[in-house]
Amino acid sequence: MQIYNTYSKRKEEFQPQNPPLVTFYMCGPTVYDYFHIGNARSFVMSDIFRRYLEYKGYQVKFVMNLTDVDDRIIKKSINENKTAKEVSEFYSDRFFEDIAKLNIKPATEFPKATQHISEMIEMISDLEKKGFAYNVEGNVFFNVSKFKEYGKLSGKNIDELIVGARIEVNESKKNPLDFALWKKVKEGEPSWESPWGKGRPGWHIECSAMSIKHLGETIDIHAGGNDLIFPHHENEIAQSEAACDKTFVKYWLHFGFLNIQSEKMSKSLGNFFTARDVLNKYSAESIRLFFAQTHYVGPLNFSDELLQSSAKGVEKISNLYEILQQKSALNNIESQTIDFNFTKYYERFSIAMDDDFSTPQAVAVIFDFVRDANKFITENEILPKSFYNDASEYLVNTAVNVLGILKDDFSKNKIEDVIDDKLIDILLNIRSQLKNEKNFELADMIRNELQILGIELKDGKDGTTFKRK
Predict the structure, then answer these.
(1) Do 455 and 417 meet the contact criterion of CB atoms below 8 Å apart?
(2) Domain-wise residue ranges, the chain
(3) HSE of 415 in the Cβ direction (CA atoms, 13 Å)?
(4) Which sign does the torsion angle of CA 371, 372, 374, 375 carry?
(5) pLDDT by residue (tens digit) across 138-186?
(6) Are 342 and 394 a contacting pair, CB within 8 Å?
(7) What is the pTM of this model?
(8) Sign of the dihedral defined by the CA atoms of residues 115, 121, 126, 127, in that order
(9) Thinking of the domain 300-400, which architecture would CATH place it in?
């Protein structure tokens, strides 16, 4: 299995530290608003990666943080005359609602920044003792010049970063690239006691402290959007490795932007749709297929046309799955040798996903399977129950359990409806025979009893049909 590592800028063989355990950290939302469909791409793709690792037999400990103390949360709380906690709790709840609708599996842990202040203070204290951090009147900064490998993830050197980076202007800093670990309290802001006085943590220290707390000092996989490479992930590396003297992350995975008219979708540009807005128009399966049809590293243009195309694709897969379930429910044919190679489709699916999670190729394999299975059913009038079960199992294993592009909702009630339809057909045949024998009283009794059950009969020259009220 090969994964493209942003740090090495190449594909590497995936070798977790302690197999079958895989530790996986995903940068979650800052809960000050509904997340947009561009954020959803990162959340969905990381969910697919996690599912595939589990499909391969790994035990994935998946952690996604919630940033619930932040400048944007504070600004929103002031604008809406609410506490920062009220704002963050409201949008945390909406976040959980929306990822559930997107069929994203719950993380092993959803740590919140405000629940890990003590870990952050301890980490900052360690950095200060080691000479990597300095205090200026209650504001604590990380001294970038002390970490000699700063810039190793983004591939830039410090001089270039000083010139081109978007950095906070603060005359208290020794170096313009130095970033805040602890911020001195301001009036009206949430704050906590610390060795440097009351204040709150900087953004970057939150992820380091939470990931180390829940996954250890070295993580197998750390994922996030491309826009987090610098400064967020660069700063995470610096402070984590300075504090622990260990490699922070083995494999860095970053997701390409979702664009509108070739421009990055973002709240700052105002060219975004929230995930819940899009979910009002399209199913979670359609949205997930839309994302999966483009490799996660590359950019993806958002459009209704592409989502409508994905919806049609989901319908093709769903139609086959429903046929398989119906035929399996009504089939009692004993096992027999059939010339359909399921192994080939499993192998092709794994080859695609093992190549840096190539979901476009994996999706293509599933559509090939749908085409070939439909053709096989059409060409073979009699097939054993085992074929329908094995074909259903393939779709469940790949399209349901890994990609999440098929809803496994062919319920017991649907199967019972299919069986009920067959029983009604039998009753209609009996009723037709009774009418031929001029036993109209018993024939009418069947009609009346069915009508009580909500089934209306319609006699015609070609026979009797029925419909459910």
Answers:
(1) no
(2) 2-130+142-150+201-280, 300-400, 412-468
(3) 12
(4) positive
(5) 999 999 999 999 999 999 877 766 665 444 556 688 888 999 999 999 9
(6) yes
(7) 0.86
(8) positive
(9) Up-down Bundle (1.20)
